[in-house]
Amino acid sequence: MGLDRLIVALDNALKSLTIGAPHSGRPSPSADLPDASLTDSERRHAAGLMRVNHAGEIAAQGLYQGQAFVAREAELRSLLLNAAREEADHLQWTQGRLDQLGARSSVFNPLWYAGAFALGLAAGCLGRKKSLAFLVETERQVEAHLTGHLTRLPQADTASRAILEKMSSDEKEHGESAARAGAESLPEWVQAAMKRSAKVMTQTAYFL
């Protein structure tokens, strides 16, 4: 069992950082939308925001895979891996949008994945309720972050907007599913630490 989980975790890490983690195959919300005409500065700004969101999805893969790796209950592990699969859709969508914008992903993606995986392992070792609490708080912060990005996107960038709106809807559902499954509240200092860590990643990934 342990070896099987290790192989799955390594496989996911490699795919997330190269070709994209296995996903549910949902088409991108922007698939049928024309690519709007953006100025050079608007395109750079949109690319920076989408690079941040792509980095966030890399981190989400690491977090959920880390939690699933140490999950003792089959039901909890299934919930985490299902969330990871839907988050992998987001990974594909944001990568596709970066490609359209002629931009690269963050050079620090391996660091974001490794750090999030370590956090996931730690959260998972605290037991079911705490592990679910990390999922709830992560999704809450990501949803707030996406809301902020929607206000900062160039008005004409309907493709990126459609992707972020669907991502936000998914994040909300993941958080609500974890809450229904019995998540506890995290201490305020833990929530604050998660926000600070996320701020470092978002500020760095926008440029790098």
Brief digest:
The protein is mainly alpha-helical and 208 residues long.
What is the rounded distance between the termini? Answer: 38 Å
Enumerate how many helices there are, as a single number.
Answer: 7
Helix content: over 70%
> What is the general shape?
globular
What share of residues are in beta strands? Answer: under 5%
Uncertain residue ranges: none
Main β-sheet description = none
Q: What's the gyration radius in Å?
A: 16 Å
Order of helices and strands: HHHHHHH
Summarize model confidence as the mean pLDDT.
87
Structure description:
The chain is mostly helical and 208 residues long. It is 75% helix and 0% strand. The chain has 7 helices and no strands. The protein has helices spanning 2-17, 40-70, 74-100, 109-125, 128-152, 158-180, 188-205. Helix 1 (2-17) packs antiparallel against helix 2 (40-70). The protein is globular, with a radius of gyration of 16 Å. The model has no long low-confidence stretch (mean pLDDT 87).
Write a concise keyword list for the protein shown above.
mainly alpha; 7 helices; single chain; 208 residues
